[in-house]
Design goal:
Strand content: under 5%
Number of helices: 7
Radius of gyration: 16 Å
Order of helices and strands: HHHHHHH
Oligomer: single chain
Shape: globular
Structural class: mainly alpha
Largest sheet: none
């Protein structure tokens, strides 16, 4: 019972942090962003974050140190992914010229996670490296078809 309550509280904190930061990709208006945030797929993504990322976060808090640091970066990456999903929901067609700018927030978080693996090797190096390397799977959002130069998103899962 306590773990579920802690998980719900952590999700609420993440949502409040997102709201307080005022982050609106591409200058989106609040009304359009709110409507997209209520989309069933976005709500399902929120549920996934609450269940899975929340569970990992609570375990990382018990361990602390670098494991907690990298877990916070992973949670941040999923929050950025959610914002990108909302942006995609509001976009009619993908603009290939703006794709790099679109993915910039996600790239910055992945770079932050990779930076945690550099320098002196810690006892948790494998954990840090695995977390950092796995974040590249979140780039599936940029897949626009066979001719985009990326493998299909299913390849990340395999």
């Amino acid at each position: 019972m306590e773990e579920k309550l802690i998980l719900r509280l952590e999700l609420a904190v993440v949502r409040l942090e997102e709201l307080s930061s005022g982050f609106r990709p591409g200058g989106l208006q609040a009304n359009g962003g709110d409507a997209a945030a209520l989309d069933p797929s976005i709500v399902a993504f929120d549920d996934l974050m609450a269940e899975c990322v929340g569970r990992v976060s609570s375990a990382a808090e018990k361990i602390g140190g670098q494991v907690l640091d990298v877990t916070k970066v992973v949670a941040e990456a999923f929050s950025v992914q959610k914002e990108l999903l909302i942006t995609v929901k509001q976009t009619q067609k993908t603009d290939m010229a703006g794709l790099a700018e679109f993915l910039k927030p996600l790239n910055e978080v992945i770079t932050k996670a990779t930076a945690l693996t550099e320098g002196r090797r810690s006892d948790f190096f494998n954990h840090l490296k695995t977390a950092a390397d796995s974040l590249t799977a979140l780039a599936w959002i940029a897949y626009t078809g066979k001719d985009c130069g990326m493998s299909m998103p299913i390849a990340h899962v395999e």
